[in-house]
User: Which sequence fits this backbone?
């Protein structure tokens, strides 16, 4: 049964989580963007701020309503906390008794993610496939994921870069959360309609408030959610019809070079993407040579070194790198993991410095009768 929370109830939730030894992460305004960082109280949330996004454009604006979640998504994805940009794999020390190798302990902190959008819930599920359900399990990711409490916030609006309905990932959260909130401002009343998605979430909700949401309040929340659907559907969508075959059959299409002529190979799209998982390792040794560490760090298929093997880079051109990224994201990801690698969040569109929009770029590629689908 959905319940009704006030802003004070949300503040109480944050306090409860911190009292239960959770590290609470949520949206915060910083450096003219809304990212995710440690949250100590409701006052840390981006009260009264919204974002304006289009290809190659992101700006924050204040509005008159003191809403907490009127933004869409910023440059950060939740993988920031589950798979950190830089993580130590092991360290080694040489002494009189020989070389001693030490692995870091598995993380055991309790994490609470506040403000997870439906597209990012889908992204977490995709990353789970990569790190938890493959041939090799990332034990550190598994430990963090196991200790993560997910508090979703349903979208009540959309940016022009959002296309989650094309990917069937939103804008309403339907699975993968412990609690889901819909923010409503109606007749000068500001409240949340809250649904539990797990037994843990239900227990937490009961500790905050057990006031049932009225039918009128539930309809108001539903109307706010439907507003987001309308806004997303009014946007340019991604045509997913035969997308895998269209990309496979057009590996040598001249449009790849047209994209490359604009692309800077800056890797912004992969860094902002909530599902990209490319990493590299680096070894660091001190001046004595007695101590060394191996670190894993985020990498990108847009960097020249990422595809380097003996004799040179496999993908030396920007054309080949962009083709690799887009074809993997929308086509070979399906072969590899059984789903698309895109969740329609639009981050790659907003944060591309030159405004490359994959929704437009993929429209060029078509299927021809004579083409080989298994190219």
Assistant:
């Amino acid at each position: 049964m959905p319940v009704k929370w006030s802003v004070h109830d949300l503040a109480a939730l944050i306090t409860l989580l911190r009292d239960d030894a959770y590290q609470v992460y949520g949206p915060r305004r910083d450096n003219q963007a809304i990212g995710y960082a440690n949250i100590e109280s409701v006052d840390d949330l981006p009260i009264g701020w919204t974002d304006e996004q289009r290809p190659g454009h992101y700006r924050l604006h204040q509005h008159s309503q003191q809403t907490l979640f009127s933004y869409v998504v910023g440059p950060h994805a939740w993988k920031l906390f589950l798979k950190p940009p830089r993580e130590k794999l092991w360290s080694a020390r040489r002494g009189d008794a020989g070389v001693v190798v030490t692995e870091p302990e598995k993380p055991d902190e309790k994490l609470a993610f506040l403000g997870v959008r439906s597209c990012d819930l889908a992204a977490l599920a995709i990353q789970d496939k990569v790190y938890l359900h493959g041939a090799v399990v990332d034990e550190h990711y598994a430990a963090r994921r196991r200790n993560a409490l997910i508090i979703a916030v349903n979208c009540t609006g959309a940016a022009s870069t959002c296309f989650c309905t094309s990917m069937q990932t939103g804008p309403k959260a339907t699975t993968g959360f412990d609690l889901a909130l819909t923010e409503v401002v109606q007749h000068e009343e500001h409240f949340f309609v809250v649904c539990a998605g797990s037994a843990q979430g239900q227990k937490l909700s009961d500790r905050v408030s057990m006031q049932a949401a009225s039918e009128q309040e539930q309809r108001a929340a539903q109307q706010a959610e439907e507003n987001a659907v309308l806004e997303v559907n009014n946007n340019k969508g991604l045509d997913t019809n035969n997308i895998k075959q269209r990309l496979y059959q057009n590996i040598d299409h001249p449009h790849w070079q047209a994209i490359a002529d604009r692309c800077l190979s800056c890797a912004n799209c992969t860094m902002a993407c909530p599902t990209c998982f490319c990493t590299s390792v680096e070894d660091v040794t001190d001046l004595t040579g007695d101590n060394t560490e191996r670190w894993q760090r985020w990498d990108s298929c847009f960097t020249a070194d990422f595809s380097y093997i003996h004799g040179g880079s496999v993908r030396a051109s920007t054309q080949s790198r962009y083709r690799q990224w887009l074809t993997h994201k929308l086509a070979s990801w399906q072969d590899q993991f059984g789903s698309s690698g895109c969740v329609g969040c639009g981050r790659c569109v907003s944060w591309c410095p030159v405004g490359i929009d994959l929704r437009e770029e993929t429209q060029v590629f078509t299927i021809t009768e004579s083409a080989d689908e298994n190219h």
Observations:
- The CA atoms of residues 199 and 309 lie 49 Å apart.
- DSSP finds 13 helices and 15 strands in the chain.
